[in-house]
Write a structure and sequence with these properties.
Elements: E1 4-10, E2 13-22, H1 27-38, E3 48-60, E4 66-74, E5 85-89, E6 92-102, H2 106-121, E7 134-138, E8 142-143, E9 148-157
Antiparallel strand pairs: 1-6, 2-4, 2-5, 3-4, 3-7, 6-9, 7-9, 8-9
């Protein structure tokens, strides 16, 4: 099944949470473990915007290594405990792809985004080294207890490729 897609401009925002670097093999178990560690600490994040959690990919490489932050949006870093990592996301245009189903299968959606979809449109993905992270949004459509639901994956794209809607 082809995922639902849209293009959207999003204002910049701040995220705070727990960050870890994973190699290609350890991320399969490591990212869920990072979320399990962060979950009980969400209430301790100062100035939190509690409508969603964010899986931020700060850097990655072709070997599958990834810098991942499990976090929550914040209005300010003021008063934030020093144990929480911080990330500032700039204003950006995005391709937004909705993953549906078990989060254990989200890699399939990521693979579709980078291997199949761009080629079909001649789309150019903005590389993470451009200081614009990719991220997953876990909102009310996702059930953390069952690990199923809808998760939006936001991938930065160059402004000029966003289709015009009339």
């Amino acid at each position: 099944m082809t995922p639902k897609i849209r293009f959207e401009r999003r204002d910049g925002f701040k995220v705070a949470g727990l960050r870890k670097q994973f190699d290609g093999n350890e991320k399969i178990e490591g990212i869920p473990a990072l979320w399990r560690a962060f979950g009980p600490q969400i209430s301790e994040v100062s100035n939190a915007v509690t409508d969603a959690c964010y899986g931020m990919i700060g850097a990655s490489n072709p070997d599958g290594d990834v810098d991942y932050l499990a976090g929550i949006a914040v209005t300010s870093f003021d008063g934030l405990d020093k144990d929480f990592d911080r990330m500032v996301v700039p204003d950006q245009n995005y391709l937004v792809v909705t993953h549906e189903g078990d989060v254990a299968n989200i890699a399939n959606t990521w693979n579709w985004i980078f291997a199949e979809y761009p080629k079909s449109l001649g789309l150019e993905i903005v590389e993470v080294f451009a200081m614009t992270p990719e991220f997953e949004v876990y909102d009310q459509r996702y059930n953390a207890q069952t690990a199923e639901g809808e998760i939006d994956i936001w991938v930065p794209v160059k402004p000029e490729i966003i289709p015009k809607t009339e």
